[in-house]
Design goal:
mainly beta, single chain, 6-stranded antiparallel beta sheet, 14% helix, 213 residues
Length: 213
């Protein structure tokens, strides 16, 4: 992702995401620069699979450029949040947000654990731009009513949506026999950002081929 910053503009990024930047870009690393929370919020981020520390990049007097990449191969998406709106991002999908956006750490509850996902989510609110990434391709699905997504293929969703964990088939045995298991049923009006690959499934496929050293 290429970010173009105006003079003295600041952007918050996930630690380790930078691959290149303008030579006069100032960088500050902190657990929590704004919104409070400090060490506790940083520890919760770490439990959710993110880095404990965030990086804050501020452009010089001429403005600047910042290039970011994710640790897994896949698409990135720039999401514009209107004032007063928000988006919930799953572990590992946060890349960056503008200084006008606030980020908080949220507990996804037992339904996230039952769905095979981490229980820590990132909630980003306020007016401004957010950059998210996916494992594989990313595609937005507009929901108006209800929509079903595999739990491992959720990158992010708008806060106007709620979800529940349900069986993929009529019976629990049928759900797991068919390889789908549990799914997330979203309800409301909003957008779900889906990803084509799931890291836990990829890891399960890869593990038998790894040779211990």
């Amino acid at each position: 992702a290429k970010l173009t910053l105006a003079a003295s503009e600041t952007v918050t990024t996930e630690g380790g995401a930078m691959i290149a930047m303008s030579d006069d870009m100032q960088v500050e690393t902190s657990i929590r620069k704004r919104d409070g929370g400090g060490l506790l919020k940083g520890m919760m981020r770490a439990l959710g699979g993110e880095r404990m520390f965030l990086n804050y990049y501020t452009a010089g007097t001429r403005g600047g450029e910042l290039y970011l990449a994710s640790p897994v191969p896949g698409d990135m998406e720039s999401v514009e949040l209107p004032a007063g709106s928000g988006i919930t991002v799953q572990s590992g999908s946060f890349v960056a947000h503008e200084s006008t956006v606030s980020m908080d750490v949220s507990w996804g509850g037992l339904k996230s654990a039952f769905g095979g996902e981490r229980m820590i989510w990132l909630k980003l609110t306020g007016g401004g731009r957010v950059v998210i990434n996916a494992f594989g391709a990313i595609y937005p699905v507009k929901v108006n009513g209800s929509y079903v997504v595999d739990t491992g293929n959720i990158a992010a969703f708008e806060n106007t949506l709620d979800f529940s964990i349900t069986k993929a088939a009529r019976t629990l045995v049928g759900s797991f026999a068919g390889g789908e298991g549990l799914v997330a049923t979203f309800s409301g009006v909003g957008t779900v950002y889906c990803q084509t690959h799931a890291d836990r499934i990829f890891g399960a496929k890869l593990t038998p081929h790894l040779t211990p050293k």
